[in-house]
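A quick aside before the break. I want you to see a complete sequence-to-structure record at least once, exactly as it would be stored in a machine-readable document. Don't worry about memorizing anything.
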Amino acid sequence: MKSPPQWTEAELTVEASKSRQLFIDERLKEPLERWISTFAKYEMQFQRLFNEYGVANPSSLTPEQLAAVFRDQLGDALRYLAGPPISADDLKVLADASLAPGVIAANPDQAQRILDTILIAVDPLRFPWIAEDREPTAEERTVAIVASAALITAQRVSTDRRNLGKEAQESAVKAFLTDMGFKNAGTRVINTLADAPEKGEFCGEALVGSRKADIPVRLFDGRLMPIECKVSNSATNSVKRINNDAAVKAGIWHREFGTNQIVPVAMLSGVFKVRNLKQAQTGGLTLFWAHDLARMQEFVESTKTG
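That is the input. The structure line, written in tokens, reads:
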């Protein structure tokens, strides 16, 4: 069987530099319109909270009003009254309550726990009047709305960048495999090689053994090649994406399927530390770059000859 490529430190340095520059070029070309439109959306939401629901004094909200806030999809903005903001999952746990509008309206005790949780964590810098038990000035209202909208916009745009980058990379890899002649076999659970797509096929995200893989591919020699699509926006973030995620999965898959039966791959885009890449490669993870899919094709084609 053909061994997957092992890159030298010099090769990794060159490709990491190319990937970083592509990331910079793409980020600098990112349209300002996305930030402006997202900010406008959340500014309007905070204005509604203040003007329609009286959130300037959140302790006065009734269970019915709180239910309406979540029914009108303003719950995200409400959670951003806290400093730092409380995630939806955390709020459910901290308040021991459901965030479903119908449940909130029918359970005043749960509604009160949600409000109490948010009130305890209200940001005193953006909402100083709440702690001081007074009405806000017009300037304080404006500053609070703008600051809160900017805070949630920064989080949403950052999350969208990561998700869109990963989705774009997955789509590009699938299209490339299709152009190579591979067929999309449909998603399935892969507990053994018998569950995997046939030779020359791939599938979308699937549970491979005990861990999910973004794109499991069946090589021509019968081995399974689970591809993890990794997009990193910083060298620090690359540790999480590569060493703490993809490389860990590679070790687990090798134990579950055997080193001769599986070729774990990370498809890379963005910014990565060469040191982290070397460590992951030494641990059994094969590395390819989204900007040079031809190198993956070379390896895949080589598995036709055993």
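Two observations worth writing down. The chain has twelve helices and eight strands. The chain has a mean pLDDT of 92. We'll return to this after the break.
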